[in-house]
Design brief:
By secondary structure, the chain is an alpha/beta fold. 33% of the residues lie in helices and 17% in strands. It contains eight helices and 13 strands. A hairpin with a 2-residue loop joins strand 9 (203-204) and strand 10 (207-208). The longest helix has 15 residues, at 56-70.
Length: 269
């Protein structure tokens, strides 16, 4: 349990992402996480609260209970998993934004930040020392929307952040996810053996390994200004030729040999 809560540093995380849990663990070990990460998944190191993400009233009650317990000054950020699936149902990003990003409600709660992201298994954490926002996501490279999803996420995060100190956040993401169209494209272009090799090196149960996450987060904390406004890949930086528009300096990945975050255009595979 992360017990310390400093000033305005309470972190509220709504979601069940293993990635977010891993990132939180890394930050906590480095003494960079101030406050508590609250998720809908039961983890020994995090406070557990059951929350029906599909119910807007449930979300508001969750927030109100937190305000009553810790006070308004303790509520720093709310991260809502707007793509959370439950029995085939999804709130959808636009629906969530419309209902949650209500100005009166926002002012009444004295939010500094409201981060709303789409897709499965998303959550976020924020470290007030480095002023970097970490958002963990999966399936963002599904070719159905591809680059448009990244552009939308970046625009959305920028627009919804009230505190100027937190604009142009670092966005953590994946380039490849098992079971998506990107898996098919990878196998077609590089072969199934190459795909399996990539998965074994970079992933655990379909998500980035803790080692990869540790390396990426450590490098971001060493130079938080260097990754502001960038998308940092957690899973080895695999990008497809089918997506040439995203091979640019906005996307970074961790190069193990150089022990550094480098632009994805330096290494297509």
């Amino acid at each position: 349990m992360i017990e310390r809560i400093d000033r305005n540093d309470l972190v509220v995380g709504v979601g069940n992402s293993k990635i977010a849990q891993s990132i939180a663990s890394v930050l906590a070990e480095q003494d960079k996480l101030h406050g508590k990460l609250i998720t809908t998944s039961h983890q020994k190191s995090h406070e557990f609260m059951n929350l029906d993400i599909l119910n807007i009233d449930s979300i508001k009650k969750f927030i109100d209970n937190y305000l009553e317990k810790y006070g308004k000054q303790k509520l720093n950020s709310v991260f809502l998993n707007s793509g959370f699936m439950n029995k085939g149902k999804s709130l959808g990003r636009h629906n969530v934004i419309k209902k949650i990003n209500d100005k009166d409600y926002q002012v009444n709660l004295h939010f500094n930040n409201i981060i709303l992201l789409e897709r499965l298994s998303m959550a976020g954490i924020i470290d007030n020392n480095t002023k970097v926002i970490y958002n963990a996501s999966i399936q963002i490279f599904d070719s159905k929307e591809g680059y448009e999803d990244y552009a939308y996420m970046k625009k959305l995060v920028s627009e919804l952040i009230i505190n100027d100190d937190h604009r142009n956040p670092t966005i953590l993401c994946l380039s490849l996810v098992k079971g998506t169209t990107m898996e098919s494209l990878f196998k077609e272009e590089k072969g199934e053996d190459s795909f399996n090799e990539f998965i074994s090196k970079n992933m655990e149960d379909g998500q980035p390994s803790l080692g990869n996450i540790n390396n990426v987060v450590t490098k971001i904390l060493e130079d938080p200004q260097g990754t502001k406004g960038k998308f940092v890949l957690l899973d080895g930086g695999i990008l497809m030729k089918n997506n040439p528009e995203i091979i640019n300096d906005d996307f970074l990945f961790y190069d193990k040999e150089k022990d550094a975050l480098i632009p994805c255009n330096k290494n297509l595979y």
